[in-house]
Amino acid sequence: MQRLITTYKLWHELLPHVPKDSRYTLGIKIDALLVETFEAVFTASYLPREEKLPFVRTAIAKIDLAKFFLRVTWEIRALDEKKYIALSELFDEIGRQLGGWMRQITAKTTSAPNK
Questions:
Q1: Is 77 a member of any domain?
Q2: In 15-80, which residue ranges form alpha helices assigned H by DSSP?
Q3: 80: domain range?
Q4: Are 26 and 78 in contact (CB under 8 A)?
Q5: Tens digits of per-residue pLDDT, 44-87?
Q6: Position 38 in a domain
């Protein structure tokens, strides 16, 4: 959760510097996807292990989509390369953490004895 907060804070600082024509389309979309990722991670963190997986998968899908839109934002030159690299690294780290969480949940679920 802390890495998500750090990423969102950086994104929130950079969003006003995205040109208006992209800020209110791609920028707002990325912002919304980050918030939706927060929601999925937060919800999963409070659920029993056997109920977490759908929310973790949702978080992974949201962060992957945000990474895609971030790349499009960079490719249309609405975000400079330095800012893109900084955000991409954070998005990648979040993706790895979520993937690890999903593998951990899956491994524990499949190794749990049948009732």
A1: yes
A2: 20-22, 28-45, 49-75
A3: 2-109
A4: yes
A5: 999 998 899 999 999 999 999 999 999 999 999 999 999 999 99
A6: yes
Give the domain CATH number at 69.
Answer: 1.20.1440.60
pTM of the model: 0.85
Provide the domain count of the chain.
Answer: 1
The whole-angstrom separation of Cα 77 and Cα 108 is 44
Q: Is residue 114 part of a domain?
A: no
Candidates 66, 84, 82; CA nearest to 74 is 84
The answer to whether the CB of 30 falls within 8 A of the CB of 73 is yes
Residue 15 DSSP symbol: G
**CB atoms inside a 10 Å sphere around CB 60:** 20
**Mean pLDDT value across the chain:** 90
Q: What is the mean pLDDT of residues 22-42?
A: 94
